[in-house]
Write a structure and sequence with these properties.
By secondary structure, the chain is of the alpha+beta class. Helices cover about 25% and strands about 25% of the residues.
Length: about 230
Amino acid sequence: MDVETAHDQADLIPLLLQHLHTPLTGTSYVRGVLPAPGGADAVRVAVGPVGAESTHELTLYEFPLVVGEDCVTAYDVIGMLRTLCGPGPRPPGTGRSPGADTRTRTRPDTDTVMGMPLVPVDPEAVPRAGETAADRGLRLLRTLVRPYCEETDRQDPLLHGFLFLDQGRARLYFRADGLPGVTAADVRTTGALTALIAALPSLVRGEVEQMTADDGDPHCARVLDVTHW
């Protein structure tokens, strides 16, 4: 994955965060945004119930970031997810189980990643659900506040993915200068979060000897466990 692709994905995250607490539709919430493995110009979004206790309760949708000469935006992704997770038959171009209700599991032969069925999505085949009044209001407010809160320089390490592993743990995905590929950090979502947030950049860059590979997670090259930090 090149630097531009990593930044494009990182830019999607703030717009998808609202759906950690606000459902896309029904009981479907965003539970993760993951970098596609192998440097692919794509993003994966994990969706499931807000009370999910493990990734086995989630479905992972993969969207290309570019279709032809057009970029796929966070608003496109949200619109497609609402279509995919809503009632009715699955639209064409969404994996190996056309006609299945998107609220149910895909067929057993569908690829599974970290316990989640992986559903590739063709943006040209999946209609976008319309924006809501809340969407439009939020877009207006984000546009107004962005010039005052954006930093001129990109952060290092750059957060460009996350996944809630359960109700108390999350895996954060970073691109760090000097470290090839993606570095993940497993953190607890309770406890001394202020101190952890302040320490994470130096931990991700400086604790390489404490990192291990996770053969079950194709989205990262190494994992740092700071759940007991």
